[in-house]
Structures
1.
Amino acid sequence: MNDIDAWVWWLVGAAALGIPLVVTAMPEFGMLAVGAVAAAVVAALGLGVVVQVIAFLVVSVALIAVVRPIANRHSRQSPRLATGIEALKGRQAVVLERVDGSGGRIKLAGEIWSARSLDADRAYEAGQEVDVVDIEGATAVVI
């Protein structure tokens, strides 16, 4: 195999590593593919097979060692923007009709909601501000 063929083989290897990346969604295959592209560049420069393999290993290992932990950390984080009922939890509301353990009405985020007190013995009168701690169906649970 001459030097001009080596870079082609590295690119074929990079493409072959790209297939399981797409099929399995495992980013490690993409990092190995980038390592193969780096080895193809080294081969195109006319450097030997040993330098090509070293380039492949260094780039691949560096990407896996640096990028993978960052990607894992980001994938474990919950979304920063709460939506739906999650966005209503923790917000303040104004009592429109007396709220106790059996029910009542509040104004929450510009809408009128049925509500009940978290503590069944506690009641909130019209005009008081309450905090929404949970949403159960179409009922806000407040304190």
2.
Amino acid sequence: MYNQKIMNIFKNPQNVGSLRGANAIGYATDFECGDIVKIFLSIEDNIIKQAKFQAFGGAGIIAASSVATKLLKDISIDEALEFDISSVVAELGNFPENKKYCLNVIKDAISLAIEDYYKRQARAAKKEAERNGL
């Protein structure tokens, strides 16, 4: 079902685990199949400096999450919001059509992580304003 490249990445994924000091976290799931992805981002000056993931699911979701986190590094938040999951497919090669739903889970987790970042920034700005009596 999966090509050799996908299986190699699945067996040796990069960027696995939580990210200490992450200032953006997104969690998404596909309730039909049960795949779960949690994306951790460290963002500085609107640039993603680090990206890691935790995933529960099969080879497709793990390999795709590994590639996605690699592609997210050193891009802007705006670029990440427009992240085209087809770049993950291009990196992995022949991704099975019946497994492409898991790519949407990754895209959702990325979007939710960036939403989380903006919420954290807004809370920090509000606290700063309150400290300054504004």
